[in-house]
Amino acid sequence: MSDLVPGATDQSHTDGSGETVADPPQVEEVNNGNDHDSALGIVDDALTSESVHSSVYNYHMENGRRYHALSKGKYVLPNDEEEKQRLDIQNHQFSITFDGRSCFSPGADGARRVLDVGTGTGVWAIDFADEHPHATVIGVDLSPIQPEYVPVNCRFEVDDIENEWTWTEPFDFIFSRMMAGSFANWDNFMNEALFHSKPGGWLEVIDSSVPCRSDDGSLTEDHALHQWMSLMLKASENLGRSIAASNHHKQRFINAGLKNVTQRAYKWPTNPWPKDSKNKELGFWTLANIENGLEGISMALLTRGLGWTKEQLLPFLAVVRKDMRDPHIHAYWTILVTYGQKP
């Protein structure tokens, strides 16, 4: 286990064909300050404590959920305690899905500089730094919600990754997970990632494929679960940040000029309906992840993107939860892992 040190959260305002593995079976501002769940931050002397609070810690409350302050309104998921718990559950679900692997890019183990885009609670970056003490791992996110104590080779930065990247030293490995719906222009992200990668460096993106589906027809258009996914997709497209981005990731990698492009596919059952033990366990964790987080996942997207009210949304989500629990609906989400190498 690496030594732990206070995490450095930097407020860095910027200026500005391969193998495919087939498919397997009224706003209120809230000043939270430096609470124990937020990274404390090492701030340049030119920035006062008040400026840090106003720029990254002045979270916004909307329909009872807390959201990021930097680049307000860009990201539709909350950053409150409930969402942080969901993200950690999701990280555990990924660990089960990948049999303990944190990533698939062949060059990741030897990487010296690693960037985790959309680090969230920072759990992936912390685990990777712990497992690779030779690497310097940087996690970047709109919200400073990472732990106070982290491995000595890990740090966090608060920034909007859609702005021009200002890192001066290139990376050996750039990683991003569950960021569909976060970017207005994925091609811009690809261009920045490639520009800031070393020759021979690797880029890996992991996302769910939309919509969920069933192989036996047990999920139909009449189900609230299907309708929810359709509404979420429409809302995200109305906001200019489609949640179906992963369906095009492999072609994006190829178009960007990466080599050794590979895509792997995995299933997340909606509940423990599968007969085999591993997929049954994954279904249990999908319920813990998605069902329990359904309000946070849906609230901003459907209220901002479709004009729903909270009062309209909550009864609908109750029916969606009922479908998610139904063992007769054999639905699943496909998780796509796409990675490639800079020439």
TrEMBL record:
<dbReference type="GO" id="GO:0008168">
    <property type="term" value="F:methyltransferase activity"/>
</dbReference>
<dbReference type="InterPro" id="IPR029063">
    <property type="entry name" value="SAM-dependent_MTases_sf"/>
</dbReference>
<protein>
    <recommendedName>
        <fullName>Methyltransferase</fullName>
    </recommendedName>
</protein>
<dbReference type="Pfam" id="PF13489">
    <property type="entry name" value="Methyltransf_23"/>
</dbReference>
<comment type="similarity">
    <text>Belongs to the methyltransferase superfamily. LaeA methyltransferase family.</text>
</comment>
<feature type="region of interest" description="Disordered">
    <location>
        <begin position="1"/>
        <end position="40"/>
    </location>
</feature>
